[in-house]
């Protein structure tokens, strides 16, 4: 093998051996699989975060769950009462914000207000925010989003 053949042989080998690493780095599954949010279970629930995170931030907005995402809030400081809703305003589709002091979801676009149970408190929205089933397992918050 002459020098030119050797360099070509090493170059091709180097590219071939690094290809699986490059493909894994580009795959969206490689990062999602490390996130607890991507863990779906046989019972249909998915992890959206932790009670520790909820207690610290006051809410968890997870956009990886369902097509519209899930907004999880606690109505008490000790996270005893946890609610999960679809955060997409039913008026024109803005993302609602949780106002802990008022215990309500408020839309920043046109001012619609929803109760912690998703029901409309103030227009212009006419329909409630869809709610999701929630349960906890240890420190994990699990939500069963329909879509
Ligand atoms: S989009 Fe929410 S009130 Fe209009």
UniProtKB/TrEMBL annotation:
PANTHER family: CYTOCHROME B-C1 COMPLEX SUBUNIT RIESKE, MITOCHONDRIAL. Residues 71-143 form the Rieske domain. One of its GO terms (molecular function) is oxidoreductase activity, acting on paired donors, with incorporation or reduction of molecular oxygen. Its cofactor is [2Fe-2S] cluster. The keyword Glycoprotein does not apply. Keywords: 2Fe-2S, Disulfide bond, Iron, Iron-sulfur, Metal-binding. It holds the Pfam family Rieske. Coiled coil: none annotated. This is Rieske 2Fe-2S domain-containing protein. GO terms for cellular component: membrane. SUPFAM superfamilies: ISP domain (SSF50022).
């Amino acid at each position: 093998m002459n020098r030119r053949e050797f360099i070509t042989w090493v170059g091709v080998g180097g590219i071939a051996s690094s290809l699986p690493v490059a493909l894994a780095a580009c795959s969206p599954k490689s990062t999602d699989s490390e996130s607890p949010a991507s863990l779906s279970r046989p019972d249909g629930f998915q992890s959206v975060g932790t009670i520790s995170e909820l207690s610290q931030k006051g809410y968890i907005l997870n956009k990886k769950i369902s097509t519209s995402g899930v907004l999880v809030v606690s109505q008490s400081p000790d996270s005893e009462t946890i609610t999960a809703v679809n955060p997409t305003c039913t008026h024109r589709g803005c993302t609602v914000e949780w106002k802990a002091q008022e215990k309500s979801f408020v839309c920043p676009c046109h001012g619609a207000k929803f109760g912690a149970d998703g029901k409309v408190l103030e227009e212009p929205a006419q329909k409630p925010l869809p709610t999701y089933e929630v349960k906890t397992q240890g420190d994990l918050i699990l939500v069963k989003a329909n879509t």
